[in-house]
Amino acid sequence: MISANDLSPAQLAALLAFHGDAGVEWLLEEEPVDRFAEFEAMKAARGNARVAATSNRTEAPASQPTARQTAAAAAPTPSRAPAPVANAPAVAIPDAQAIEEARFAAESARSLAELRVAMEGFAGCNLRNSARNLVFAEGDPASGIMIVGPMPYADDDRDGQPFAGRLGEMLTRMMAGIGLTRESVLLSNVVPWRPPGNRVPTAREADICRPFIERQIALAEPKHLLLLGNFTARFFFGGNDTIHQLRGEWRELAIGGINVPTLATLHPQDLVTAPINKRFAWQDLLAFKARIHG
């Protein structure tokens, strides 16, 4: 097994990035270890060894403690207290308070730029503690077309932009099929911070992030909205229906005082894992294209 001491800084950084992408949040041992006490005990043991080597006596009296006994005596008894966790929030605020603070921060923003600043300073969602980046809306807010996914994935979190990596390439091809580009629409996610291990956001996390995505839609004022995936469709439409039950049907979504014609379809991840879904997504995209062109 390779020790961490044998790795270069670049290799250590790559290893930490790998653990982060795999969903590992903290690296802890089973029991807390007092490294300062270990170091002091080691110094004491080495000092006793030097004294013994220079001594003229051939053997120590039976009552004299050995270096190992001295080191053991110097080390304090291990405590059962939990090890401190780095970067953990000092105080957890109640859910209702976090939602209210998110709503206040979102409604105070008068532009997408102000909203991004507000979200960068928001500390009420636990997801930001494990994510690398805030993944904010990207593209053309004036296009009248907005595409919303569920959450950032590993590539999005690494690059700090929505729909990066392999899934982003799939979405780019999907849009190209109906004459759209990344630059000609506004791309965003319901949740702006990547959940550890790409897990589905909890109901609490979704509720806290709701004011932010609704404010993005209200500020952008899209004429047409495309929702990607099961989580996103349920988030906006409610209920427990699957994306196969919710897709392909136009609905009026009332957000921020505006009504937006909205269509749900499958997420690029659904097409990667089950290519047969491509035909359903293509049907939805053609319906979206027909609607945006009148």
From TrEMBL:
Membrane-spanning intervals of the chain: none
Reactions listed under catalytic activity: Hydrolyzes single-stranded DNA or mismatched double-stranded DNA and polynucleotides, releasing free uracil
Biased composition (Low complexity): 60-83
Keyword annotations of the record: 4Fe-4S, DNA damage, DNA repair, Glycosidase, Hydrolase, Iron, Iron-sulfur, Metal-binding
MF annotations from Gene Ontology: uracil DNA N-glycosylase activity
SMART domains: UDG, UreE_C
Family: Belongs to the uracil-DNA glycosylase (UDG) superfamily. Type 4 (UDGa) family.
Name listed for the protein in its UniProt record: Type-4 uracil-DNA glycosylase
